[in-house]
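User: Hey, my collaborator sent me this sequence without any context and asked if I could get a structure. I don't really work with proteins. Can you help?
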Amino acid sequence: MQLSVVIPVLNEENNVEPLLHELEETLRGWDQVEVICVDDHSADRTLEILKSRSAEYPWLRIVRHHEQSGQSAAVRSGVQAARYPLIATLDGDGQNDPYDIAQLVAVYHREKNIAGPCLVNGRRLQRQDTGWRRLSSRLANGVRRRLLGDDTPDSGCGIKVFARADFLDLPSFNHMHRFVPALVRQRGGTVISVAVNHRRRVSGASHYGTLDRLAVGIVDLVGVLWLARRAIPPASNVEQECNG
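Assistant: No problem. I've predicted the 3D structure and written it out in structure-token form, which is a compact way to encode the shape of the chain:
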């Protein structure tokens, strides 16, 4: 099994060490696996803790942004740095359960031979967030599903599995991580939602406020709608001729 786990982190000094310990337990026995933590220019001890654990965890790699660039940029940096063709992503706050990686990978391998790119997307059935955050997420997902037709009930869930090449073929823009299912479908791909565990945040707070996400989400939604109207569908009538 060749797998790169990409985790964007920003000011998660109290969460990153327990997450690494869980990953050590979860990934034990996997032959070829790496975990890439992308530090988005944290202002606390997150980077220091990651560096101090790199000798203990030989599968750990660290990517560092020299300025804060956002979650989507951090995910893309990690995927670009990945050595292996299959990617799993997790949020760095510990709310995603690393033990769910195996089931998403199994679903991916079962479905990957269908036409086009394949994305396995987590679905948090019992979100351990505030009522306001759950409501705002439900509304945002509903609007995205209705306008983009991505048929994904929880497109913002941080735990996903996909092919590295497929992800790097998607357009790159700020906040694109919330629209990956729609972008995959625009390319004739398949998105499969799988129920996953979700845990309460033990320490710290979300670095992206609800109103901020709503404001940028409207702009991004218009952009993704534009991309959907301009997308070139996969060609089914192409024949390649070779000389000689």
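In plain terms: The domain at 2-230 is CATH 3.90.550.10 (Spore Coat Polysaccharide Biosynthesis Protein SpsA; Chain A). You can pass these tokens on to your collaborator as they are.
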